[in-house]
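Lecture 7, part B: from sequences to assemblies.

Below are the input chains for today's worked example.
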Amino acid sequence: MDLLEYQGKQLFARNGVPVPEGCQAATVEAAADAADELGYPVVVKAQVQVGGRGKAGGIKLANDRGEVEEHAGAILGMDIKGFTVHELYIEKASDIAEEYYAAIVFDRGAKKPMAMFSKMGGMDVEAVAEEDPEAMRTVHIDPLIGFQAHHGRRLAYEAGIATDVVRPVGAMLAKLYDTFVAEDCMLVEVNPLLITGAREVVALDAKVTVDGSALYRHPDTAEFRNLGDEDPQEQMAKERGLTYVKLDGNVGILGNGAGLVMSTLDVVAQAGGRPANFLDAGGGSKADAIVSAVEVILSDPKVSAVLFNIFGGITRCDEVANGLVEAFGKVDVEVPFVVRLDGTNDEEGRRILADAALEGVTVEKTMLGAAAKVVELAG
Amino acid sequence: MDLLEYQGKQLFARNGVPVPEGCQAATVEAAADAADELGYPVVVKAQVQVGGRGKAGGIKLANDRGEVEEHAGAILGMDIKGFTVHELYIEKASDIAEEYYAAIVFDRGAKKPMAMFSKMGGMDVEAVAEEDPEAMRTVHIDPLIGFQAHHGRRLAYEAGIATDVVRPVGAMLAKLYDTFVAEDCMLVEVNPLLITGAREVVALDAKVTVDGSALYRHPDTAEFRNLGDEDPQEQMAKERGLTYVKLDGNVGILGNGAGLVMSTLDVVAQAGGRPANFLDAGGGSKADAIVSAVEVILSDPKVSAVLFNIFGGITRCDEVANGLVEAFGKVDVEVPFVVRLDGTNDEEGRRILADAALEGVTVEKTMLGAAAKVVELAG
Amino acid sequence: MSILVDNDTKLVVAGLTGREGTFHGLNNKNYGTDLVAGVTPGKGGQDVEGTPIFDTMHAAVGETGANTAMVFVPPPFAADSILEAADAGIDLIVAITEGIPVHDMLSVYTHLKRGSTRLVGPNCPGILSPGKANVGIIPAHFFKEGNVGLVSRSGTLTYQIGNEIAQSGFGNSSIGGIGGDPVGGTSFIDAISLFEADPETELIVMCGEIGGDEEERTADYIAENVSKPVIAYIAGFTAPPGKTMGHAGAIVSGSKGTAAAKAEALEAKGVRVGRNPTEVAEIAVEAIGSKA
Amino acid sequence: MSILVDNDTKLVVAGLTGREGTFHGLNNKNYGTDLVAGVTPGKGGQDVEGTPIFDTMHAAVGETGANTAMVFVPPPFAADSILEAADAGIDLIVAITEGIPVHDMLSVYTHLKRGSTRLVGPNCPGILSPGKANVGIIPAHFFKEGNVGLVSRSGTLTYQIGNEIAQSGFGNSSIGGIGGDPVGGTSFIDAISLFEADPETELIVMCGEIGGDEEERTADYIAENVSKPVIAYIAGFTAPPGKTMGHAGAIVSGSKGTAAAKAEALEAKGVRVGRNPTEVAEIAVEAIGSKA
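Predicted structure of the full complex, as structure tokens:
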């Protein structure tokens, strides 16, 4: 789960990471009131999960209420690389002496956290990596020992920053690691990490990804919402407890098990089709779940045909067939369905479908055959 | 450093270990006022670092102010196994359903913390260990993984306590472990660990030993004092930064290095003498430290002769000799001294002593010879 | 022969008294797996159709000599259960639980790597050695004994591919899922090295998916260490960057972890990659000949 | 031959720029030890009488190939310094610092046990292999090359006994202090097993003291694993229970850790125990004959 800047900074603040004072706002008036409260100058920042906000005009300095109103008005509703701005963060302007880069990431290959630091901050990291790969310094952290002072010193000295800020930068990295652990993060990135004129270290930005599986122990974080990120189908699927990802094709897809669904998408694409979604009905899919899933898939107006690809292990094909029959009774289905049932109780499932003689439902025996058929029907 | 009960309970409270409400008091009036504040009944508890306070009459229930005054008056100044009671702890009386035993200790052999639990609480642990060795359950904790829920469950189930308190007892053990780590403890012992009538788990006693080397990060703990524990010589030595332990003989001893001093005590005892103290003047003992050490040793009126046993490594024998000469100039020395100087600059040291011709100072070349001599002189 | 589970397996199930635990535990038992115990705190002394329940893993191991633990407990308690099994001296832990927090698994993984307990999973379907033992949720009736070793990150995809291979006449030495989470106890490399050492296994099939770089590292490992033929399948060519595809670990991050890159890496090291599950079975026939 | 330090030792000193660090680091260098670097954060680029200083241990190891680190930094920073040296790939860390918190050492000890770095100390005088290398604060001029291996918890007591032995004509293969703290990286057993394997060592002397049960466990180890004669000395017969005798680890707890119990345990396993330092030397002469 990706957090917006102001949400990430809430996590920072509660874990002792210094951040400038600021306030979230969703309207021009709220923005101006927040700025009055904070005191000028302030920075008006678009809250979208994408880099390059500054270049796109999404970050503006304001010296008085009028300027805040002007910038807030311009930024709210703005489109930045496909993301619509629904929220602003109004932040006290900082006194910038140096801009560094700092991050704690989960390195999946090493199965360890990794701390990253560079003195080239405030710009695109991947650009830095290309321009000067040596500028980005990294150390792996043993998760049982945690972040030690020597990790911070090493990153700071190797990055070649001024000696007077080695210790405070190390302390900041330690606090970021604390945040990473305490808040169950997958990523904590600060770009830029600021050295002020007074030689204080401040997190000027916050890019935080938290582990969705750990939200049960972070009720505050679980309540965070990103208004710009809520696709109506994905929202609907989430409410029904389904694992659904919206794609941009026209072949609706349901399968059981994440790997099989991914494979189904691939096979449909290989057959020349364009998948409209990923939907894992899960192991042991019961009739209820099938009805819900059909509703979610069909709520996407682009869908012109649907493929059910089931390999029954724990899932019983007869239950899936019954679910489909039930769904056709409840939902107004106007597109053709192709159903492939294999595995546990597959013959029984196919018999149920044959008996129900649902209009527009074709049964196929193999995955490849089913994919070819649904692509043909989707047009 | 051993803490008194009320001090240990302060550590408990700040780490989330449930303890009854209570208040320290050093006078009868303060005790009665504290009891009025807490509400009756209360328990008046002698604060001394020794077991068996209850049997000795150091713990009394009081139902009103008059009873508090009576008990506080009786207990203050009481001698319990050689410890004088200088302080009381006034605690709200608890409703006792069960009494268990819980501890987190540092197991030196395993180099790991060890959690201990028994359902036979409220009595002498060593008696329990003799009566029913199986009653005391233990698990080692990997310090990098820490105390896990399964450790608590295992102790609770193996000890055979009622199922309804397994989970809260496990949670209590986890909190005690948190305290052990957060407060740099060597020992955290709760005897009895109480189950109340409402089935809540409460620490009714607290025996805590903290690591003296870690006091720099626990300024609050470093301020704890135990009025009953302060021998005047040890207090004086502490103020001067000397490593000094008071013993009960008449041969004052100074050496350099803990191992050599221990060995010196042994050799003096083997020669028939009784050491008056352990004093390690440390590596590289300078003249100042020698003067201080002489003052501390001689402040014990039992001392009738003093042995200096120096093997110079980093310590230079000439500096020790100069220190001794200086000390004789500043301090009124009325007992004989035996000095053995060996190692770095020993000849120079012996020459300095010969030149100074200090009254009552005998120089010996070997450790055994010096021990025999000082025992003879001490009488 | 086979890998990880076999006739010597003595299984204890953490969470045997739960709905899923009972269902799959008894399934495994009915298959012939030696189910010796269950662990559910507070239910010690009860039994599940004759299998005794203990309050602690230590008691279960002490009383029954269990050497393999299957973990079915809910995510908030799963890491503790895995650590308990390791502490009790279990040799192999198969963690079925889905949704264990990544930081919990980082600690567990790091701790276990320093000991002698092997963890498979979490979020995995378990391991089946046809005719010997089944530990997990793999529907065993599709598979028979044979010479193909199959390892996958995914459950149902395993069955799909396993079934295609079975229909080409092959049986399996063992079929295992290593799980779809970012931090798993057993890697493709671990499983493949076991298959390489297993005399019964003549062909190794691995089913990867998007996310991470394990398939890429496995390709290098195979090139240097594996003498037996390996066939691969990779799911998720169609997955868009930044979206988690069902499994917590199945996510393309930036330009990293794509199916195309993985297939390319494997092929560059001489591992044949099937475009779809059916093609995997066809390549298997080419590689070692159908026994059908 | 010798143990732990020798002509292959390339020494880096953490805290070389401090007063004590400079004094002893240069002492070691003057003895002939190959002092290649110092580490002091913020002083990288400086030097101490020609020995280069680095900001980090990693830079020091990378630039100089140091394989042995001596830690002289103050207690609050010592655990971090030890972990840094291990992380940088140092083989042997000798920690002189006294007063490191026990919980810091519990973490460091547990972490290091799982890697390949050996720690000696903390709160130890270091190791001297006469004629080869001196790493620590042992005054080397009392000792010459020879066949007695000496290991002790204490510093000055080591010199006292070492000197008595030297005066009986013996030299030393190596003399080492394992430190007086409750959690030390190297035990008597570790050191004695190294002496047992060292061809130059013909006699092993161990100097124990009150506290813990290491001497008792060492007695068992010697009985089962050591073929060379071992002589022991134990300090602290006079120590009262509950009082720390100078060393953090030197404390009799209840009836545990007494000198009498230790001496008895050793003698029960055939290890001769000298009643005082002089007697240790006398027994040494009996055991292998004076070379004087």
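Note for the exam: Chain C has two domains: 10-120, 143-291. Keep this in mind when comparing with the next example.
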